[in-house]
């Protein structure tokens, strides 16, 4: 131990100089605070620090910094205190009345379970789920977590209990085509203006994987996902039509980037057949034109289905999973941020993301003025409520995880048997 080494061998200033020359910084620290105080007091007394000249005091200070690991400012305060009082002691004390623990171990485990089910969403979104579980679905376990602040949520996520529970996830070439209007859509607060993009599930040994079709409404963030074996007219058009028909409200416009899978005459004829008036495409050097669906590609599709290769022959199983399990979870149980727009002092439009603006896409749809008039014929909010509240958020997430695990188990089994 450093205290014994010091008492036995470091009795003169020459011993101190040899020690500093042979021991680089960080090699001989006194680990405990009380040990450091005792060591510091003994060294100051042995060398009669108050009688030394300035160079020798500096030598002794460097020695103490090296052996204790204290900063120069800390060392200055401690030396001053020793010279005034003749001794050193740890003055830290615990609180006279310790703070009561509000969140129990069971609350932390419940938070970890919720994060595991939903894939560890952002803090405000997770807080919104806890509040919905308590207020909307009357789950008594969430009584305390319903009042959890965003800041303390991250404190609980750093706790040992939480960590132990949770430890068990080519560029399109532009083409000059006179199809689609090159502009950004202007929904003006109305649902029905969709963004569409494709996500490729990787290649393996020059064999193409499935493609996912991601369609998102700009205003409500309503989202439906489909899967196709190939990006071609034969495979894509039926799935795209199926996705457009799944939205509970009328479709007014479709926006895509400049990929040829969407900017073509076949898709244009499909939109004309469905009486979708506005067909737009992204502008050059305006990367935000299709940013919403691009962000959903990563936060939803990649997070739920990963990056690994899935052969195209499994597209039908994936499409059924997306339609029956994933899309209902996204629309009725996964909270999203909805920005509020404000004009600052300079007249510039700013987007603000507030906690009170976190809703599920379905809640956002219901909150829009005149939303009932935008629904498709034969669809009303009573029918949608029955689907939205048939399961709690955690129940829907658990169903999603089980269905996804079973799907990938089947895919791995078929691949293994084929090999």
Summarize the structure in words.
The protein is of the alpha/beta class and 419 residues long. The chain is built from 16 helices and twelve strands. It has helices at 2-9, 13-22, 33-46, 54-68, 72-85, 105-118, 123-135, 150-157, 160-166, 233-246, 265-273, 291-305, 315-332, 361-367, 381-388, 393-418, and strands at residues 181-182, 193-200, 203-204, 207-208, 211-217, 223-228, 253-256, 278-281, 336-337, 340-343, 349-352, 358-359. The strands form four sheets. It has a six-stranded mixed sheet, sandwiched between helices. A hairpin with a 5-residue loop joins strand 10 (340-343) and strand 11. The longest helix has 26 residues, at 393-418. The protein starts with a helix and ends with a helix. Residues 1-7 and 168-172 have low confidence and may be disordered.
List the SSEs and their pairings.
Blueprint: H1 2-9, H2 13-22, H3 33-46, H4 54-68, H5 72-85, H6 105-118, H7 123-135, H8 150-157, H9 160-166, E1 181-182, E2 193-200, E3 203-204, E4 207-208, E5 211-217, E6 223-228, H10 233-246, E7 253-256, H11 265-273, E8 278-281, H12 291-305, H13 315-332, E9 336-337, E10 340-343, E11 349-352, E12 358-359, H14 361-367, H15 381-388, H16 393-418
């Amino acid at each position: 131990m450093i205290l014994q080494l010091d008492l036995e061998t470091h009795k003169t200033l020459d011993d101190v100089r040899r020690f500093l020359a042979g021991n680089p910084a960080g090699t001989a620290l006194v680990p405990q605070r009380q040990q450091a105080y005792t060591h510091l007091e003994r060294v100051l007394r042995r060398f009669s620090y108050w009688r030394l000249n300035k160079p020798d005091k500096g030598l002794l200070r460097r020695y103490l910094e090296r052996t204790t690991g204290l900063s120069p400012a800390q060392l200055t305060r401690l030396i001053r205190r020793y010279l005034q009082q003749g001794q050193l002691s740890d003055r830290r004390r615990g609180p006279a009345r310790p703070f009561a623990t509000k969140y129990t171990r069971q609350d932390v485990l419940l938070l970890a379970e919720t994060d595991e089910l939903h894939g560890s969403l952002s803090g405000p979104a997770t807080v919104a789920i806890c509040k919905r579980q308590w207020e909307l679905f009357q789950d008594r376990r969430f009584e305390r977590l319903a009042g959890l602040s965003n800041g303390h949520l991250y404190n609980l996520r750093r706790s040992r209990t939480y960590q132990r529970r949770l430890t068990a996830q080519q560029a399109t070439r532009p083409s000059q085509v006179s199809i689609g209007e090159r502009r950004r859509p202007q929904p003006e607060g109305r649902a029905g203006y969709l963004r569409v993009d494709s996500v490729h599930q990787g290649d393996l040994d020059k064999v193409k994987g499935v493609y996912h079709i991601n369609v998102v409404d700009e205003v409500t963030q309503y989202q439906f996902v489909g899967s196709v074996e190939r990006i071609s007219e034969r495979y894509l058009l039926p799935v795209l039509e199926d996705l457009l028909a799944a939205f509970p409200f009328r479709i007014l416009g479709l926006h895509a980037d400049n990929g040829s899978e969407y900017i073509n005459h076949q898709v244009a004829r499909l939109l004309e057949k469905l009486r979708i008036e506005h067909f737009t495409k992204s502008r050059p050097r305006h990367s935000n034109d299709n940013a919403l669906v691009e962000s959903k590609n990563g936060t939803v599709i990649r997070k739920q289905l990963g990056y690994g290769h899935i052969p195209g022959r499994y597209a039908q199983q994936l499409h059924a999973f997306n339609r029956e399990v994933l899309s209902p979870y996204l629309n009725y149980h996964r909270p999203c941020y909805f920005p509020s727009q404000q004009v600052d002092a300079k007249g510039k439009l700013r987007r603000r993301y507030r906690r009170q603006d976190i809703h599920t896409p379905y809640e956002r749809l219901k909150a829009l003025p005149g939303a009932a008039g935008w629904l498709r014929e034969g669809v009303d909010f009573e029918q949608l409520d029955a689907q939205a509240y048939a399961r709690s958020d955690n129940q829907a997430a658990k169903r999603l995880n089980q269905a996804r695990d079973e799907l990938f188990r089947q895919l791995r089994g078929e691949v293994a048997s084929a090999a």
